[in-house]
Amino acid sequence: MCRHLGYLGPPRAVGEVITAGSHSLRDQSWAPRDMRRGGTINADGFGAAWWQGDPGSPDGVQAYRNPVPMWADPAVDGVLGQVRSGAVLAAVRSATVGMPLERAACAPFTGDGWALSHNGRIVGWPVSIAGLAEWLPAVELLRMPALTDSALLWTLVRRRLDAGAPAAALASVTADVLEAAPESRLNLLLGNGTTLWATTVYHSLSVKVDETSAMISSEPIDDDPGWQPVPDGRLVEARPGHLNITELGDHL
Length: 252
Known about the structure:
Layout: E1 2-13, H1 14-19, H2 25-30, E2 46-51, E3 61-66, E4 84-93, E5 109-111, E6 114-121, H3 130-133, H4 138-142, H5 149-161, H6 166-180, E7 185-191, E8 196-200, E9 206-209, E10 214-217, E11 228-229, E12 234-239, E13 242-247
Antiparallel strand pairs: 1-4, 1-10, 2-3, 2-4, 5-6, 6-7, 7-8, 8-12, 9-10, 9-11, 12-13
């Protein structure tokens, strides 16, 4: 399992976004509170994506990833402390047994102006999902950033983003994966620099939105009473001044 976080609001240092709060994403890498028997620590790498310039541009998103624990990388306070953005998506990783420990396997995965993170696992990987992967063109499978369940989810979502709305892409992918591999945990977090979308499938998620900022996180990063837990089986759409939480099935 993993932990992830998305932020939209006034420009801040990327390093500040992922270390701010009494229970920051960095704290969650070594002391998560709600892993739901999905592990005890998130020490298998981390990543952060941020948008600069035109968020809608295919080249608008940049990313930093490292397969070491977040707390062990001085770049979090160094390099990432110097980069400012009003849109950040970050994650810490707890690798499923048997999956590679490498930079390319660390979320968020980025491309064409999008960034995506996955908190959870596909049960029975890779056999359970082989039938669904067969529908992808061979070239897309060969271009997967890593041989992991999260990278396959990114590949599936990215293809469906070309064909429809983000909410529909996330809902259809989660539905198809659950049909092939029931009881998989599929909390996805997707951003394009202006809006965040997230799913809750058997894992924790909270959201906090006001008129100037929006934040989605696997666990609240502080004790602010504005945090709202998201029930299971939901799809969240958030940006400053806007929050919509609906049933996942409403988007199929």
